[in-house]
Design a protein that fits this description.
The complex is a heterodimer of chains A (about 450) and B (about 290). Chain A has about 450 residues and is α+β, with helices and mostly antiparallel strands. In chain A, helix 5 (about 120-130) packs parallel to helix 13 and helix 8 packs parallel to helix 10. Chain A is built from 20 helices and 13 strands. In chain A, the strands form 3 sheets. In chain A, strands 1, 2, 3, 4, 7, 12 and 13 form a 7-stranded mixed sheet that branches. In chain A, strands 9-10-8-11 form a 4-stranded mixed sheet. Chain B has about 290 residues and is mainly alpha-helical. Chain B has helices at about 10-35, 55-60, 60-95, 100-110, 115-125, 130-140, 155-180, 185-195, 200-225, 230-235, 245-255, 260-294. The relative contact order of chain B is 0.13. Classes of the chains: A alpha+beta (about 450), B mainly alpha (about 290). Chains A and B meet through helix 3 and helix 19 of A and loops of B.
Chain lengths: ~450, ~290
């Protein structure tokens, strides 16, 4: 008898608790997890790769402001370098440990879309204003008519040079690869290297440099059917070109260089030329303030002087919302606030000219134009802005693809250069081996 | 019939340890074994059973054998260097009478640093443009040009072994020193009275007393050094041109680089099998020594 009473009591308690639970849910939360009356409520994790101080601070300030305006929201920010970020999200995906929202690289986004790891953000794009984004930038994260990412800022690779060294040697800013090699060789003296050629296997630098050359000749490192193409005449010519630069103008240690090692040489005034985005300005400002007035940039060299100015690599740094997120509505609301004119301009001002706006209506504002660095480097800003519109991520000239992402993330082209440099392997043999290896990797994701 | 009563209380006491061991040891081993038989890809949701296909791919890849030979050379050279330096330092410290503690602390410093600090510090010291050591050698005239410790294929492997010896020798030193201090001094005194030379004292008193400890250290260090990943990866990433790619780096590149987790798991299983064989041989030898001592 006692057991029966206990059972009835327990059952009643369960029913009551379920009713209370339902009541709470319906009274306090909407279907998508927002609180009552659309009030946002919940905790999200945001992974980003803005490891430098000012950018990190602006993002944190924006999150703090958002949390103040939405007291029931908590945003936890975790920062990883780009290299670590790739390992983090790929391993996280396998283990079910991914954030609610994150930054990414365009190549990552394609892989994320393939893995069905992220959700469309068309509603955010529409709220900000679809026509404010460049169509090419949006298309990098597009599949089946849906946008899975939106670009937070843009930049492009251009040629940086030391005005003072060129002037001293009576040299013009090179316009062709031939002039570039000549100038770089001339300027390799007195502890300064003409141009460092980086090929550390943990980065994409050699792929980037080779891509410059191949794109300048109208080619691509991928064929139309998305196979690696390192054995075309143009690619072999490009490989030989950079090997010549390595041999004659570069520190030998650059065989192991990643992006920061390479940039540091320019920041320290030890290279006359380098290829990078507007981020070089802040790097030089921080490391060698006395050299800031001596640097400027120009379009990438061409094969012939009368070839048109081209772009070889534009990076539209995207933001994504992860499918695993329990609170996509919070992520989307927060992303929208990042594009508010004041916040957005502050963010860009953290690395002026380095990060160019991905939306219209910012660069012509008084606040944006009043920035001292933007004024001082107006030529650089113009050169980079033009290059932004002329290209896409490496390999994206055939449209966004996993192959394009793998082309830069495997270090295979870098290993190819290392093999030629340190083992003396024949260029064509090494190029064929690297091409086969890349195609094998491409096949593994089919 | 008398039945044996199970003492559940005892099982409860060891249960937490069993769970921890299960999670940290048994699960990873079995999951690696399982994945090694599949086409598991890091960012693909589905995968198939491929039998021994991954093993076949690995065992027919020349780069695997290259990495394996590099691993053997890395382990043997590092181990010999660490034992020589650690042993010599321990013998020296054992004879020191004053400030013994200070010397011990100074010598253990390399072991106390996290690998990331060691790797980045050495990378900075050896940088071929602005590194301290290449510039000292060049400016003092000892080198005709800036030595490329980390990018020259003839120097990079030796450089990494030097760093590993510098890093691992203190651990050998501390353990050998502890073993040396357990040797009864009266045995040396008796040997001296009998007219034994220093070398004879070392060979017939010191070595027999410490050989089991050194043997166990060799087993542990073999496993650690063979599996060492962080120092090499952080300093050279396995390059240039795979000159410093050991089996763990090969496995890492396979798993997190090309994302072929199944194939990467096959490499780790092969690595485990190899180390088990090595350990089995070591323990046979140590067991024989222990029997001789009894």
């Amino acid at each position: 008898m006692k057991k029966r009473v206990l059972s009835v009591l327990l059952a009643a308690l369960m029913v009551a608790s379920m009713a209370v639970g339902c009541g709470n849910n319906s009274a306090g939360k909407t279907e998508n997890g927002s609180g009552k009356d659309g009030k946002l409520e919940g905790e999200i994790t945001f992974w980003h790769s803005f490891t430098q101080g000012p950018r990190m601070e602006v993002i944190q300030a924006a999150a703090d402001k958002f949390m103040k305006e939405n007291p029931d929201v908590k945003i936890t920010i975790e920062t990883f370098s780009w290299g670590d970020f790739y390992t983090k999200w790929t391993t996280g995906l396998a283990a079910g440990n991914v954030p609610d929202m994150s930054t990414a690289l365009p190549g990552h986004v394609v892989e994320m879309m393939d893995a069905e790891a992220i959700i469309p953000v068309d509603d955010v794009v529409d709220d900000i204003g679809r026509d404010r984004f460049a169509e090419a930038a949006l298309s990098e994260g597009e599949r089946d008519g849906k946008c899975y990412s939106l670009p937070l800022y843009s930049h492009a690779q251009v040629m940086w040079y030391r005005k003072d060294l060129l002037e001293k040697a009576n040299l013009e800013v090179p316009e062709t690869w031939e002039e570039f090699a000549e100038a770089a060789k001339t300027l390799t003296k007195d502890g300064v290297y003409g141009c460092s050629f980086p090929c550390g296997s943990g980065d994409l630098m050699a792929t980037r440099f080779l891509n410059f050359y191949v794109r300048s000749g109208g080619g691509s490192l991928l064929t139309d059917d998305l196979k690696a193409d390192l054995t075309s005449d143009l690619a072999i010519e490009g490989i030989n070109y950079w090997l010549d630069i390595y041999e004659n103008c570069s520190p030998k240690d650059s065989v192991n260089y990643a992006v920061l090692d390479q940039a540091n040489l320019f920041y320290q005034g030890k290279t006359a030329f380098d290829f990078n985005s507007g981020f070089h300005i802040s790097g030089v400002e921080t490391n060698s303030p006395d050299l800031v007035d001596s640097i400027d940039c120009a379009p990438l060299p061409r094969i012939n002087a009368d070839d048109p100015v081209y772009g070889a690599e534009t990076s539209n740094i995207p933001m994504v919302v992860w499918a695993n997120s329990e609170h996509p509505e919070i992520c989307k609301a927060f992303i929208k606030t990042l594009y508010e004119t004041d916040t957005y301009t502050d963010f860009l001002a953290a690395t002026p000219v380095g990060m160019l706006p991905s939306i219209t209506g910012i660069s012509d504002t008084e606040k944006y134009q009043s920035n001292e660095t933007v004024q001082k480097f107006s030529n650089a800003e113009q050169v980079i802005s033009e290059a932004v519109g002329l290209s896409a991520a490496i390999g994206f000239e055939h449209g966004p693809s996993v192959e394009a992402g793998l082309l830069t993330s495997q270090g295979i082209i870098e290993e190819m250069f290392q093999d030629i440099i340190t083992n003396g392997t024949d260029v064509k043999t090494a190029a064929k081996a690297a091409e086969d290896k890349l195609n094998e990797v491409f096949a593994s994701v089919q | 019939m008398k039945t044996k009563k199970i003492d559940y209380g005892r099982w409860l006491l060891v249960l937490p340890a069993l769970i921890v061991v299960g999670m940290l040891l048994v699960y990873p081993i079995f999951s690696s074994l399982y994945y090694s038989l599949t086409s598991k890809h890091l960012i693909k949701a589905t995968y198939d059973f491929v039998g021994l296909g991954n093993y076949q791919s690995v065992l027919t890849d020349p780069n695997f054998y290259k990495a394996f030979i590099t691993s053997i050379l890395w382990t043997v050279a590092s181990l010999l260097g660490q034992i020589f330096v650690g042993f010599t330092a321990a013998l020296a410290l054992n004879r020191v009478k004053r400030l013994k503690g200070v010397y011990r602390i100074l010598m253990i410093i390399p072991w106390a640093f996290p690998s990331i600090v060691i790797a980045l510090s050495w990378k900075w010291i050896l940088n071929g443009v602005s590194g301290f050591l290449p510039n000292v050698l060049y400016k003092s005239g000892l080198a005709a040009e800036l030595p490329q410790f980390l990018s020259s294929s003839s120097l990079v492997f030796g450089t990494l072994i030097f760093i590993n010896v510098w890093f691992g020798a203190p651990m050998i030193m501390v353990n050998v020193l502890s073993a040396l201090q357990t040797i009864p001094q009266d045995q040396y005194e008796a040997a001296q009275i009998d007219g034994a030379s220093k070398l004879q004292q070392f060979l017939y008193i010191t070595v027999p007393h410490i050989k089991v400890v050194v043997g166990l250290l060799v087993v542990l260090r073999t496993i650690w050094v063979f599996n060492n990943f962080d120092i090499i990866y952080l300093i050279t990433g396995g390059g240039p041109a795979n000159a410093t790619t050991t089996v763990p780096i090969y496995a890492y590149n396979m798993g997190w680089g090309t994302k072929l987790l199944g194939r990467s798991s096959a490499v780790t299983v092969l690595l485990l099998a190899f180390l088990l064989i090595v350990c089995f041989i070591y323990f046979k030898i140590i067991g024989k020594w222990e029997k001789e001592d009894k």
